Inverse folding.
């Protein structure tokens, strides 16, 4: 019930703030309108991220690895102290954890170190970056076109349901994807500024730097920045060929300088684990990873779900401008931003809907651009109400999707009993690297909340006896006694 009441309050305040944002926009008070839009986005993100437990995929793994990196930032580990044999190829139960690059994990680790071992500390960096990304979308829309388009694009970003859920840790990739989206968008903004300005070497260098950081968030997809910048720069005709090559090489070299040291480090320090992980992701294009396969048109279908079923209208509008040769470099930039990843990922064997979000800001600006010109040109149409209705639907459908993903009117347990029980284990079990607990339903979460090693199964008796001989304190959760209870094991039991 508390979650339902909080949801109603959140949506009510969001609607009121959005109304005043629209009123101030009409009066050309752009700064106030932008502030209110960002505030709306932040409120929605805080509400969605208020669950007092770690979500299954993949937040609990990211949280535990980040916690373990506080003391050893260059040693990403899931199990800090594995006491029984394990398979290093099993990313949900290994020790050295290289499934994701380090930047998002460092961000989470810093927040946990500052604010404590809790769920809000885990999500805070993503919630802040996701909110800041709304401002980046405003800047992109404003710099490319005008403030009206920038504000509308920012609003679409603020209320996008999947982006919000991602920052809140509810869906897979969660904080890693949020960091990645932010740094890709920042790179794109710097690329846009570099094309606009004549003296742009510094901006190109920064674009390369942020591209390198995006590679340290989610491996190679961050390279999308390079062809997008190159295509738009060529279309703009603002560079001579030598200058074009020079600036392209600056981006490429700078991003490599940021990214490659980590690759060399993990290959040298963790050869088995890094070799397996890099091989897995290199072959993810030709082989489906963990069952994430889908038909060729998967992303085109999901674009209509994530950005509204009428996304086809702005896309067709772009195609019309391209055919009529009325497309400037600004529109080329935006369309390459979404076309390149959709085209490349559509041929890949591994497909996931969150991959589309690296192009989300481009979709937001394209939709805002279409709405702006539909409303400006509606006087040319005989049935103006149709144009107005389509413009309203282009906004209303994403709003509906926001409600579907945020789920403000759903009765949910924000603080389930199992999470409370795991936190209370601090008062029952010694907090030590020499403590091992078996038969826990949530071992990963238990290791996050506590300082011991946990497993979901009970090993054979010789394994337990061997641990006790090595001075480990061994506990087993017994569920066969009517309710869960702790049993401390002694040699010979």
């Amino acid at each position: 019930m508390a979650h339902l009441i909080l949801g109603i309050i959140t949506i009510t305040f969001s609607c009121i703030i959005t109304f005043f944002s629209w009123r101030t926009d009409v009066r050309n008070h752009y700064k106030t309108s932008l502030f209110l839009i960002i505030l709306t986005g932040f409120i929605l993100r805080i509400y969605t991220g208020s669950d007092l437990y770690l979500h299954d995929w993949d937040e609990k793994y990211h949280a535990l690895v980040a916690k373990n990196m506080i003391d050893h930032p260059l040693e990403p580990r899931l199990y800090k102290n594995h006491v029984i044999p394990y398979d290093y190829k099993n990313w949900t139960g290994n020790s050295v954890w290289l499934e994701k690059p380090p930047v998002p994990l460092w961000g989470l680790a810093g927040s946990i170190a500052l604010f404590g071992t809790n769920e809000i500390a885990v999500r805070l960096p993503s919630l802040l970056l996701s909110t800041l990304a709304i401002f980046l979308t405003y800047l992109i829309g404003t710099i490319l076109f005008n403030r009206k388009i920038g504000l509308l694009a920012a609003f679409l970003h603020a209320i996008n349901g999947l982006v919000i859920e991602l920052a809140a840790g509810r869906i897979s990739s969660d904080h890693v994807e949020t960091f990645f989206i932010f740094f890709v968008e920042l790179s794109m903004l710097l690329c846009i500024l570099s094309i606009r300005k004549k003296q742009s070497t510094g901006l190109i260098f920064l674009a390369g730097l942020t591209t390198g950081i995006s590679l340290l968030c989610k491996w190679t997809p961050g390279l999308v920045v390079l062809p997008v910048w190159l295509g738009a720069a060529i279309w703009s005709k603002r560079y001579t060929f030598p200058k074009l090559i020079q600036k392209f090489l600056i981006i490429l070299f700078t991003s490599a300088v940021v990214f490659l040291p980590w690759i060399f480090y993990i290959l040298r320090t963790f050869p088995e684990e890094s070799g397996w992980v890099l091989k897995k992701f290199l072959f993810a294009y030709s082989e489906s990873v963990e069952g994430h396969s889908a038909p060729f048109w998967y992303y085109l279908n999901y674009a209509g779900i994530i950005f509204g079923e009428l996304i086809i209208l702005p896309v067709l509008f772009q195609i019309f401008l391209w055919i009529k040769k009325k497309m400037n470099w600004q529109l080329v930039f935006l369309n390459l931003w979404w076309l390149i990843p959709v085209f490349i990922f559509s041929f890949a064997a591994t497909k996931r809907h969150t991959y589309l979000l690296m192009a989300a800001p481009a979709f937001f600006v394209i939709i805002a651009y279409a709405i702006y010109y539909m409303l400006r040109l509606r006087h040319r149409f005989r049935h103006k109400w149709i144009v107005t209705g389509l413009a309203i639907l282009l906004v209303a459908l994403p709003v509906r999707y926001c409600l579907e993903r945020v789920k403000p009117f759903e009765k949910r347990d924000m603080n389930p009993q199992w999470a409370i029980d795991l936190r209370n284990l601090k008062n029952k079990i010694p907090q030590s690297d020499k403590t091992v607990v078996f038969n826990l339903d949530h071992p990963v979460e238990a290791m996050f909340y506590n300082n011991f090693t946990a497993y979901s199964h009970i090993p054979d008796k010789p394994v337990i006896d061997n641990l006790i001989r090595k001075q480990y304190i061994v506990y087993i959760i017994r569920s066969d006694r009517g309710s869960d209870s702790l049993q401390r094991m002694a040699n010979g039991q």
The chain has a mean pLDDT of 92. Residues 2-406 form one domain. The chain has 20 helices and four strands. Residues 155 and 477 are 49 Å apart (CA to CA).
